Each structure stands twice: as C-alpha cells, then as structure tokens.
Amino acid sequence: MNFLPIFMNIKSQPCLVVGGGEVAARKVFLLLRARGEVTVVSPELCNELTHWFQAGDIQHVAREFEEADIDGKQIVIAATDNEAVNQQVSSLCKARGIPVNVVDNPKLCGFIMPSIIDRSPVQIAISTSGASPVLARLLRARLETIIPSAYGRLAMMVEEFRERVKARFKGNDIRLFWENILQGPIAEMLLAGKDHEAREALADAVANGAAPDNRGEVYLVGAGPGDPDLLTFRALRLMQQADVVVYDRLVTAPILDLVRRDAEFIYAGKAKDKHTIPQENINSLLVRLAKEGKKVLRLKGGDPFIFGRGGEEIETLMAEGVAFQVVPGITAAAGCASYAGIPLTHRDYVQSCMFVTGHLKDGTINLNWKALAQPHQTVVFYMGLHGVAEICKQLKAHGLDSSTPAALVEQGTTQNQKVHIGNLDTLPKLVANGDIKPPTLIIVGEVVKLHEKLAWFDPGGEQVAEYPNLENINR
Ligand code: SAH
C-alpha cells in the first residue's frame, strides 16, 4: 500500500490552492464542498473561480506564489502549469510537514485525491495510487450504478437512531440489530422513497427490541422495450434481489438473464387469444406470493402504467395490504421512436403526441378517430398489428390525407429491430406482405419522414430469439 486512505476534516480550516485555471477550480470545488476556507494564489482566475470569488466563497491573492502563502495552511494543492512552481510548493510543504497535492504528479504529492462517490454522509473513495486516474474513474462509474442514490438518506436515518439503539441494546446485539435493519424491509422502504413509513417502522423496531421479519413485497417494475441497457438502476437492483419473478411476454430474454439466477420464474404472458393466466389470477398470484413472505418481482415490458395494467395490479395489492413499489420503465413509444430515428415531437411538424391502443375487438377499434385524425400531431398505436388496415382506413375516413407518413416498428430496440416505412395507403400492404413478428408499434404523422435522415440504430447482426419461447416457458 503506497498511500494510507483517510478522510480529513477541513471544515473552517485554511486551505491553499496555487493556480487559477480550470484544474484548480475542480479542486477548489471539492474543498468548498468539504467546507474548507479556500485561498487561491494566482495572477489570474478562470471564470468559475472568478464567480466564486465574487460570491465571497473564496479568497484571492492576485500574484505569483510566495513562500509565506503556505503559512498556517492545513492543506495545500498546487495546480499550476508551471513545473518549477509546482516543485517549489511541494518541497516547501514537505519540509514543513504540510500535506501537499500536486495535480497529476504523484511523485511530488504528500497526499493524492481519490475519485469520489458521494452519497453524503456515505462516501466511497477510489484510488489507483496515481497509477491510472482513468481506471479509477471507470471504476467509479461502475460503482455509481449499483449504489442507490438514497444511501445518503439511509445513513442519515441510521444516525438519527444510533443513540436510541445504543441505549436499548448491548454489545453484539447492536451490530446484529443494524445488520437486520439495513438488509431488511425498513431499508427497502427508505430506498423506495417511503421515508416516513421507514422511520415509524424503525422507531417500532427499537421499542420492540427486534428488527421486523422480512415481509413479502411486490416490485412492479417496467423493463423497458427490449434492450437491457435501457433498464433503470432501480429496476436492475430489484431484479437482483427478487425471490420470484412473474414476467410478461414482452420481457426479452437478455433482460430475464439479469434477474437473480436462483429466483423462481413464472411466466404470466398472454399470447394473442390465448390467455395463459387471466388477469384476476395474476393479481391473486402476486398477493399469495407476497403473503408467503417472498420478494416478488412483477416484471413488465415498457412502463407498467402505460397499457400495462399496472394500476389494476396494485389496486388489488393495496386492498390486500401487501407492500409494493412501482418502478417506471421506458415505454415502447419512446424506445421505438428513438431507435427508429423518429422524434415523436418536432418543432417544425408537430405540437403533440398521443399514445393509443389499436387493439381490435370484434373487427373494430373503439377510438375517437376525429381527435386522432388531426394535423400537427403524432399518433402512436400500441397493439396495432392486426388492426393496421382498420387504423389506416379510419384515419383516412376522418380526414387525414392518404399520403400521411406511417411507420411500423418491429421488435423495437432489440437486435431484431426492423422499421417499415410507408403511408396510410401503403402500410397495410407492407404489413400483409412482410413476415412481421410482434411486438410492433405504429407511428403515424409527419415526423415519420425524419426517419430517412435520422435513422442511426442498425443492429445488423444475426436474428436472435429475443422473446421467450412460449413452448418451454416456465423455467
Ligand atoms: N407497457 C408497455 C406496453 C404494453 S402493450 C409499454 O409501456 O411499452 C403491448 C404493446 O406494446 C405491443 O403490442 C406493442 O405495440 C408495444 N411494444 C412493446 N414493446 C415493443 C417493442 N420492443 N417494439 C415494438 N412495439 C412494442
């Protein structure tokens, strides 16, 4: 170990930064965050430092560095582009036992500054002892994604209760109590944004002398349109702590691969006209599993509240008193439009966008066609593959020109994505003649023209089985 990691309290302590450029500004920013009293010595200041100086956040000595500048300083950072000055600052500080950092020059440093993940009061510092700052930054980016941003709030709640817990428990029991709390439902409540509920439960737990048992809970999670990279951090975290996953037909195989390996997998999708599990049964299945004490991941394609029946599912959970949380996902319209290079709104073409269901029932689609067939708007049809001829016919009958551009996006955002472009006259034929595989989304409006210019996603690889195979579904 070349360096000893320590966290230093510099609150209200005099700190010196030599240099007035952008690199110096980055260091000043950190010193200010730790509430140090910062003086900058430099003939000139960059914009950011000038701004802080004018706001009274820092002192400025407008000249070259002099030896006496380090008098009484708690720490010193040299960030000039003059090698000789950096060298001088380093040796003067070392001779007087003042911790010194010279930016990007570990040899001249008494201390080095790590890459930081800040979830104050939780802080994680990463260092490669100066060997590769880039590697430290890459590591940091990885860790940032797996450490929930609410960890700071979690630590603050623990701090509030520390004394009470110390007074209630003895020795080893204090540690055990906190281990149970931090890995149990109370921490999960806080991470899900139920701060009041978490504090009340923690107060009860201290009063009762025990952390509550793990209880069952349902995570209603949007898995996005298909590409696993479009998952949210929270979705991924909950996917990795679920005991059982109840998933839809629209959740792609690469996404299922990210669910905790030893979770139980239950397929609850619906093939067209083939209801595998009726909706009421899905609702009661979720309730039953949660009441068995399991962490139930209800994983849905896209966003659970957009044509996803998420509302119905949580109504039942609420009625049954089952704890749940809802995690939004990227809905198919947003995902498919981005990956097809079709902006859903555009200043030059449209002012609004509608999401509607094109689901055929008895050969018709019950929609307000007049409202849909308006100029300057984009209409996105979910579940519209079988109704495409009817959709185009109705839009024309209600006033849209037959040359209005229309696109059908097949398996959007996946490696199998295909975009079929036509207009209200040609799209039904394109669909009838093509070997088109669901899921598909239909986009109607002038913005579809932009595809020609803006298309960028071109998976080009082999066609792969993106969606779970209905024949051997329960694994
Ligand atoms: N809750 C989902 C929508 C469920 S309805 C969401 O927010 O996206 C199912 C319809 O979504 C499908 O019939 C299809 O129209 C659309 N869809 C979902 N994923 C899709 C994808 N990858 N490509 C194209 N359409 C998709």
Keywords summarizing the entry:
475 residues, Rossmann fold, 5-stranded parallel β-sheet, 35% helix, Cobalt-precorrin-4 Transmethylase, domain 1
Characterize the structure shown:
This protein has helices at 22-33, 47-54, 83-95, 133-146, 151-168, 172-182, 185-191, 195-208, 233-239, 253-256, 279-291, 310-319, 332-340, 369-372, 388-397, 427-433, 451-454; strands at 14-18, 37-41, 58-61, 75-78, 100-102, 115-119, 122-126, 217-222, 244-247, 264-267, 270-271, 274-275, 295-300, 323-327, 352-357, 377-382, 405-410, 418-423, 440-444. It folds into 4 domains: 14-113, Rossmann fold; 151-208, no CATH class; 217-330, Cobalt-precorrin-4 Transmethylase, domain 1, CATH 3.40.1010.10; 339-454, Methyltransferase, Cobalt-precorrin-4 Transmethylase, Domain 2. The longest helix has 18 residues, at 151-168. The chain has 475 residues and is of the alpha/beta class. The strands form 5 sheets. It has a 5-stranded parallel sheet, sandwiched between helices. α10 (253-256) links the parallel β9 (244-247) and β10 (264-267). α7 runs antiparallel to α8. Residues 470-475 have low confidence and may be disordered. Bound molecules: S-adenosyl-L-homocysteine. S-adenosyl-L-homocysteine binds next to α13 and β19. S-adenosyl-L-homocysteine (SAH) is lined by residues 225-226, 250, 300-303, 306-308, 331-332, 336, 382-383, 409, 411-413, 439-441.
